[in-house]
Amino acid sequence: MTAPSPDSSTPPTAATAVRIDLPDGRAVTHRDVAANGARFHVAELGDGPLVLLLHGFPQFWWTWRHQLTALADAGYRAVAMDLRGVGGSDRTPRGYDPANLALDITGVVRSLGEPDAALVGHDLGGYLAWTAAVMRPKLVRRLVVSSMPHPRRWRSAMMGDLGQTRASSHIWGFQRPFIPERQLVADDGALVEQLIRDWSGPRLQEDSADEDALAVYRRAMCIPSTAHCSIEPYRWMMRSMARPDGLQFYRRMKRPVRVPTLHLHGSLDPVMRTRSAAGSGEYVEAPYRWRLFDGLGHFPHEEDPAAFSAELVNWLKDPEPDRP
Q1: pLDDT of 70-103, one tens digit each?
Q2: 42: β partners
Q3: Which residues have CB under 8 Å from 107's CB, separation 6+?
Q4: Residue 25 gets which letter from DSSP?
Q5: C-alpha span between 300 and 122 (Å, rounded)
Q6: Around Cβ 11, how many Cβ atoms within 10 Å?
Q7: Among candidates 162, 174, 145, which has minimal Cα distance to 234?
Q8: Best mean pLDDT range from 153-162, 207-216, 284-293
Q9: Are 281 and 260 in contact (CB under 8 A)?
Q10: What secondary structure does DSSP assign to 301-322, as a single string?
């Protein structure tokens, strides 16, 4: 696939920047589904049990391009959705708290006509996958989280670990009004490329062959209102820590996760420290497997897609996921 150039005199649209094929030329099915009072864009490939893939920041469904193929080839219905406010999904003025975003996800499962799904989430998508597994456990068959601790573990690290506070400086920067949005779209989204490179391990940092992928992310961020909507969840997460709605949410998240859980992390992740993510298993009352990818950063599913996809597929197919 030849990616559209990020350099353009007119703002990109979701139709041109988001509804694209996979790099190997395979055509995914793009469609919109209604859920939780909004419209969500999904990209779908394959048939079988549903695996719903949830992206993080600063990306959209296309971050799962490698896993869509691997899952479809393994006999799964692989669906990657754009979260509220991102990619081809609705950009609503409100609704970016994690409880509502988790209801978006479980609502999409229902709208796809499935009784449940295996949720696979990275970064913010992982935070929401944890949340959905607590709020709507009957709709979550299995849980896979990459590069994100359990929400209560995240809160504890952000409040009590100076190293994690420094690593999450971008989240603190998001609390300013207007400025972060302008920075994200300046120079045709150049900051998006910089963040992905800075947060990756050495393999992606040194790989100049992935310029097309970075151009896709830059262009998607420049769709009007995307920059604002993509950072609203982080504003809620920080500003609500001492507010009643935030305290209520974190109390709710004391409920244990009761579905088999695979927790994946890059050993060189500079955004979410390994010590912050490790220990999330204390919130899981079900088979829990921790897997650390040596030499990878914040995007293990893109930095080493073959290893990540193999781990994912093998675990999903394992009838006894409690085995190490």
Answers
A1: 999 999 999 999 999 999 999 999 999 999 999 9
A2: 31, 81
A3: 35, 36
A4: S
A5: 9
A6: 12
A7: 174
A8: 284-293
A9: no
A10: HHHSHHHHHHHHHHHHH-S-TT
Task: Residue 14: name the closest of 35, 36, 30 by CA.
Answer: 30
Helix (H) or strand (E) holding 145: strand 140-146
Can you give the C-alpha Rg of the chain in angstroms?
18
Residues 6+ apart with CB under 8 A from 286: 257, 258, 259, 260, 261
Contact 115, 48 (CB under 8 A): no
Contacts of 47 (CB under 8 A, 6+ apart): 72, 75, 77
**Pair type for strands 77-81 and 50-54:** parallel
Task: Give the tokens for residue 220.
Answer: 């998607």
The pTM of this model reads 0.94
Q: Name, in order, each residue with C-beta under 8 angstroms of 43's C-beta and a sequence gap of 6 or more.
A: 28, 29, 30, 61, 62, 68, 79, 80, 81
**Structure tokens that stand for 166 in this block:** 């420094």
Task: In whole angstroms, give the CA distance from residue 130 to residue 143.
Answer: 8
Q: How many CB atoms lie within 10 A of CB 199?
A: 24
For residue 67, give every residue at least 6 positions away whose Cβ sits within 8 Å of its Cβ, in sequence order, or none: 53, 78, 80, 120, 301, 305, 308, 309, 312
